[in-house]
Amino acid sequence: MILVAVLFAAFASVSSLSVSVFGGTGFVGSRVAKLLVEGGADVTSISRSGSIPDWAKGADWVDSVQWKSVDFLSADAKAVDAVVGNPDCVVSCLGVVGTDPEVLRKGNGDANKNAFSSAERGGSLKRAAFVSVSSEVDACKDSWLPEFFKEYFEGKGDAEEAAQESVGGASKLCVVKPTFIYGGDSFAINPPRVTFEYGSGIEELLMLPPIKILADITPGLIKVALRPPVCVDSVAGACAKAVLDESGSPLPTLDGTVQINEYSGQSKATGLTDAITWSKGKLIDFYDWAKVEVPKAIDWTQKKIDELQK
């Protein structure tokens, strides 16, 4: 896998770096944990459930992760600190969607603020990564989205500020800002998800130059809808790469699919090409079958007609 190769090549010297993943049992967080293990870090997943996600059960890497549970909203600071400890780096994939303004503000803002504050109190924090939201999506909050959604974006903004404060400056924080994240092998409504194959096809399609030009000149949510989605592996790869980077170079803000893919080393999406190739192959198979079977069917039909006319 190219993504893993990039991580190993860039950070082969990383050893015993302790990294905590907030929301580590989730769609993005669990994949961050996997890549961190493969990158040589000591990994702790901290989430409300503390459970191993279904897609990863039975995989070898899960045995290298400490799976811990805490509710960043309801637990007091002492209880949170006992779980978070003193990690060298943290990645936060905490976030919620829905229609309740209070839930959106707390789930995206307060939960992250409490998590980052605890990591800072641990005293060893060097770097952090945070999964936020694309600036083009954020720009839609005032005139294109329902009023309650403003709390989602306000919460994300609060979380970014808390993350930056926890590490002592923007240069030690990587903010990953996707539009729509796809991946896995199932579709879902809440939160919205599409499979890897489907999402990869849409990403490849929306990466085409004519679509990009059209997206650049259209407003609001129309622009966002025409932007390519990003694979969950790429988002996870960007987060893992950032916190494993011991070079001392400033960490980037990655806004949108192109920047995220370039930084993570994600392979170019080929879902559309693969679908066309598959369809072409099926058409060829059908043609080969029809060449043999259709004449047989015609002959059989003609024989039956001849029998009836006797």
Mean pLDDT over the full residue set: 90
Strand residue percentage: 5-15%
**Major beta sheet summary:** 7 strands, parallel
Which outline best applies?
elongated
Order of helices and strands: HEHEEHEHEHHEEHHHEHEHH
Given helix and strand content, the structural type is alpha/beta
Q: Note poorly predicted spans.
A: none
Question: Which bin fits the share of residues in helices?
Answer: 40-55%
- Rounded to the nearest angstrom, the radius of gyration is 24 Å
Strand tally is: 9
Kindly report the oligomeric state of this protein.
single chain
The strands making up the biggest β-sheet line up spatially as 3-2-1-4-5-6-9
Figure out the total of helices.
Answer: 12
Please give the alpha-carbon distance between the first and last residues: 68 Å
Task: Name some characteristics of this structure.
9 strands; 7-stranded parallel β-sheet; elongated; 12 helices; alpha/beta; two-stranded parallel sheet; 310 residues
SSE topology sketch:
Blueprint: H1 2-10, E1 18-22, H2 29-38, E2 42-47, E3 65-69, H3 77-84, E4 89-92, H4 101-121, E5 127-131, H5 135-138, H6 150-167, E6 173-177, E7 181-182, H7 196-206, H8 209-217, H9 220-226, E8 230-231, H10 232-244, E9 253-255, H11 257-264, H12 271-309
Parallel strand pairs: 1-2, 1-4, 2-3, 4-5, 5-6, 6-9, 7-8
